[in-house]
């Protein structure tokens, strides 16, 4: 199967190419970039040198010749091409935020009119597998909502309040330099940002509600001096106290059949570079601490996108994604 | 005034010596270490080379000749010498946990019988200045409770629930190598530890109660890949919603006369190496996020100990502590 | 083919298991550890959870049932079992230093008598491929000599002096905590160690001599605040000046057929987790700067060991090793 | 004495203000910035909050009212105002490169015509103290040449070749974000840059020549994932072998009277934030490894500039600079 990546020069584009190198049934045939037309992919992604001969092309969505498309462009750019892909009958996963929320919520959160809205399944694979399997177009979740929701889902119905305190690596900010990503502002340092106003909160609330929970959700992200990974500490306040044994059993059961969700003490390094989400939980009665870790660029973006592609195309769900991260 | 530091080979001992180098009225005359008797201080603390000729001595508390003593030994070691100092009439600040809690709480939290209990003021300077001023022996607070309490104090009476989500640098673990501090386990990594069971929680609850608040307190610490600093994100759930303007004004007023507490967007680097605590606050109605940063070895230990000494001895409270950290 | 790893609890053991998970013709069947007999491998190597059910066993070399053995034990431990493997006709790669040098050099450098010496090919694959192909027992090179030699080899015959200035990540020190690896001693820090006395220099000199060069070799290693990777800056003083064009052409030609050696501007991150060695060169006339990067645990240890196994067993040289690192 | 800093918004400007806060005889009265006219200094340098009320002003050199000026602007900007200061009889230290080299060398190295050349002493204090003492205008050295020259100076006359292999923290690149300083390109990574072409080499060669040495000098810088500090490994090839004892004695003697140069095993952390340069040396006969560490923003820039100001104004050379760095 031939794959096109629209917007392949960024980190998520690079990850898609890295991961698909070892996919048994899919191969990247087209990597687009407006800015880098004609440039070898390996000049921008030096870790791919020797493994791919791809060259960036400035190809329009209407001219792309591929069986499957990943949209790895920013929000608002995705909505400009999504319709074309759907009309042409090309299956696609959109890694941007453009189709993750209902139209009205999107417009409020992103402060703009959505020009090309349609409904799409929300690609948090473990929670929406059936919808994704039959879909032609899937909205890949945000990195924070992926880790946060997997941390809290098993307890959602028992909670009255959930506070997500997340800590992310810097690659989440993309590959464009800024004050925020300037090394001397980040190295050996730590800070919170968008303390109460991060847009991903809308996705988190949506998922908790879909789980049938009325819990109030709050979210504060922080910037870690690490390259990759998100650790989310979900402080879950329960309506009725639960003991550790019970809570842990609940989590183990909930994820028993999930290859990519492992119940073990979470540490960023154990999932780095992989599609795994490690989760564990500790109860002190009325508060439960559930912690999850993911790689923001893999399970939080490109890996989950491939996991969704696998479902949409009838491949094994772990095709191309069954490998260990490196530790240390 | 001549100072003795009992247990001067660790990080807090090193910080005491670094900071006191520039104190106008105090000079370190004795630096004890059982293990390093006869070794020049600068061999262990190379940043002090050229600035001190001190040599570690294995001197017993009963033989120490000094006007003021800092106890920079671990808990249980402090209680073995505290009584001697008190009897000899030597003023002291104890950086260990031995006198921070009532006897019964201490024994429960630390799982042992306290052999030499007496009451001592809790040295969170900004909250207990008057008690400290008249004291002969002060129990210096834990690093986490210092930052956490300063973050939440102004809102304590309005809160029903406070969740402290803290992130600390590795120097908090001391200078003895362990699995926890092994670079490949920490570098480019992040994890939570003692999710619901850290001993410092007892101090946090004690302080919130002393502020007249009935708020429930929870605490989860995390280990950052940085050398120094603690950032605490206090998620404060209010009984009645408060607007941003109101909350911010409350904080600015609360700390208006405090030289060492600054109201500005907290980032570890801005307080690194100093006795400052930077605090700011953001409300989303019923939840307020209050964030504080301190240097765990300075405001969280040696700096606050000197601040307390200054009060106990009638010096200016900021003597020896009035300097900027370095940034970046 | 069934593989046994003797000493599988350390970093190189972990890497062998990680890499062999995706090998088409080899599977790890035995992972020994004296200390951890009965413990699941995933308890020590959490990144392998869900991917292996292996349990550490305390099995003696004489009792191991496998087609191929990796010795991932420290030097002096390897020599105690190497003979047994050879006698039993089991092919093996030794990742320790025990068979890398002639007996007399080894005894001088390592300050001891070699109890069980025999000759073995030196497993720097690109330079000794033919010898390795026919061997039953191969001595895998040290991490520093691998990167350093690949940096200098093309110019060895034209040089009169080669100074290797190497910078390594902390995982090179193994997984046992020490002062050297204590985070606060390494994070945001940098230093040189064994400025003129590192044992790997003997291997470097041996390889330069085998290339027919009479160049004098020097070596100074440094410790980086990074987890993995070695960058070696080889300062090569030439007998006759050479222009940039000429030198670069020489390097490109020398490595033209080598899959694992890529000519591109070296940066640790581009080879992290992989068996690649990136090399480039810049001439200023009589001095040439040649820089190489490798992952110390992969091309510098476990990856090259598998590359050698592939040759020894008639597999494709890149079997199990053909994947990209992650960047960032 | 009143100080003006021209170009006070960058890292060296921030350091000048931090350090001068504790100077007994000098006070910053003017901090200029074209871009930030009217902005409080503490908004840009949050570590200075509470310690200074200064506000950036867009003041021209001709209008500055001060007793002493630091030029903390980039090269080419400094030459536009240097003449004005000299004419007005205001003593100054220029932290840029504009007056470090003879006109012809400068024009060749920086590829431009020098519009306002005059001769100025080179402010490597330890080597040119007498010239500096009497000067009205001093050219502060580059960060790399400072550390490199102090490492090699004692052996310069005995060397035939000196290779400086330097590793710098990221703050050396200034506070403007770029690809080079983007965290994901630097964190957990390492690389060389300007392998043979860094402009600072001209200063290094000049200083070695001034020491009466005919040694050939080479220089390759590298970028460390640390905020501050430069470690230079000087590989010194001697005309005649020298023993360790002899070399070490030479260094200790050479720097015996220098407060800011300490003979001890160099590690970045021990000098971080301070004006110290730690140096040590190890001989293996015909090659000597001399290693130095400095803080690039202090001894490599603002600290040495103040050291020079102290000499130029008749203050104690260590005024305002006599304090320890923090470790860890």
UniProtKB/TrEMBL annotation, chains A, B, C, D:
<dbReference type="InterPro" id="IPR036291">
    <property type="entry name" value="NAD(P)-bd_dom_sf"/>
</dbReference>
<dbReference type="InterPro" id="IPR000534">
    <property type="entry name" value="Semialdehyde_DH_NAD-bd"/>
</dbReference>
<comment type="similarity">
    <text>Belongs to the NAGSA dehydrogenase family. Type 1 subfamily.</text>
</comment>
<dbReference type="InterPro" id="IPR023013">
    <property type="entry name" value="AGPR_AS"/>
</dbReference>
<comment type="pathway">
    <text>Amino-acid biosynthesis; L-arginine biosynthesis; N(2)-acetyl-L-ornithine from L-glutamate: step 3/4.</text>
</comment>
<feature type="active site">
    <location>
        <position position="143"/>
    </location>
</feature>
<dbReference type="Pfam" id="PF01118">
    <property type="entry name" value="Semialdhyde_dh"/>
</dbReference>
<keyword id="KW-0521">NADP</keyword>
<dbReference type="InterPro" id="IPR058924">
    <property type="entry name" value="AGPR_dimerisation_dom"/>
</dbReference>
<keyword id="KW-0560">Oxidoreductase</keyword>
<dbReference type="InterPro" id="IPR000706">
    <property type="entry name" value="AGPR_type-1"/>
</dbReference>
<dbReference type="GO" id="GO:0070401">
    <property type="term" value="F:NADP+ binding"/>
</dbReference>
<dbReference type="GO" id="GO:0051287">
    <property type="term" value="F:NAD binding"/>
</dbReference>
<keyword id="KW-0055">Arginine biosynthesis</keyword>
<dbReference type="InterPro" id="IPR050085">
    <property type="entry name" value="AGPR"/>
</dbReference>
<feature type="domain" description="Semialdehyde dehydrogenase NAD-binding">
    <location>
        <begin position="2"/>
        <end position="135"/>
    </location>
</feature>
<dbReference type="GO" id="GO:0005737">
    <property type="term" value="C:cytoplasm"/>
</dbReference>
<comment type="function">
    <text>Catalyzes the NADPH-dependent reduction of N-acetyl-5-glutamyl phosphate to yield N-acetyl-L-glutamate 5-semialdehyde.</text>
</comment>
<keyword id="KW-0963">Cytoplasm</keyword>
<dbReference type="Pfam" id="PF22698">
    <property type="entry name" value="Semialdhyde_dhC_1"/>
</dbReference>
<dbReference type="GO" id="GO:0006526">
    <property type="term" value="P:L-arginine biosynthetic process"/>
</dbReference>
<dbReference type="GO" id="GO:0003942">
    <property type="term" value="F:N-acetyl-gamma-glutamyl-phosphate reductase activity"/>
</dbReference>
<keyword id="KW-0028">Amino-acid biosynthesis</keyword>
<protein>
    <recommendedName>
        <fullName>N-acetyl-gamma-glutamyl-phosphate reductase</fullName>
        <ecNumber>1.2.1.38</ecNumber>
    </recommendedName>
</protein>
């Amino acid at each position: 199967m031939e794959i096109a990546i629209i917007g392949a020069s960024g980190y998520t584009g690079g990850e898609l190419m890295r991961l698909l190198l070892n996919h048994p049934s899919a191969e990247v045939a087209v990597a687009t970039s407006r800015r880098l037309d004609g440039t070898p992919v390996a000049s921008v992604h030096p870790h791919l040198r020797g493994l791919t001969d791809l060259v960036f092309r400035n190809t329009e969505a209407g001219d792309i010749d591929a069986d499957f498309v990943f949209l790895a462009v920013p929000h608002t750019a995705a909505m400009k091409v999504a319709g074309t892909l759907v009309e042409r009958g090309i299956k696609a996963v959109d890694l941007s935020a453009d189709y993750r929320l209902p139209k009205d919520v999107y417009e409020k959160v992103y402060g703009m009119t959505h020009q090309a809205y349609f409904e799409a399944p929300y690609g948090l694979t473990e929670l929406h597998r059936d919808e994704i399997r039959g879909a032609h177009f899937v909205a890949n979740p945000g990195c924070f909502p992926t880790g946060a929701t997997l941390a809290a889902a098993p307890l959602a119905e028992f909670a009255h309040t959930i506070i997500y305190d997340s800590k992310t690596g810097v690659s989440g900010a993309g590959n464009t330099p800024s004050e925020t990503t300037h090394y001397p502002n980040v190295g050996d340092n730590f800070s919170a940002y968008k303390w109460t106003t991060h847009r991903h909160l809308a996705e988190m609330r949506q998922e908790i509600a879909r789980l049938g929970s009325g819990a109030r959700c709050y979210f504060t992200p922080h910037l870690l001096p690490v390259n990759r990974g998100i650790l989310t500490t979900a402080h879950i306040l329960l309506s009725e106290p639960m003991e550790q044994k019970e809570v842990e059993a609940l989590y183990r059961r909930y994820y028993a059949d999930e290859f990519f969700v492992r119940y073990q003490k979470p540490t960023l390094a154990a999932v780095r570079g992989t599609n795994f989400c490690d989760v564990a939980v500790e109860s002190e009665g009325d508060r439960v601490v559930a912690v999850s870790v993911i790689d923001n660029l893999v399970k939080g973006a490109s890996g989950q996108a491939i996991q969704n592609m696998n479902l949409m195309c009838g491949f094994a769900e772990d095709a191309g994604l069954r490998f260990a991260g490196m530790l240390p």
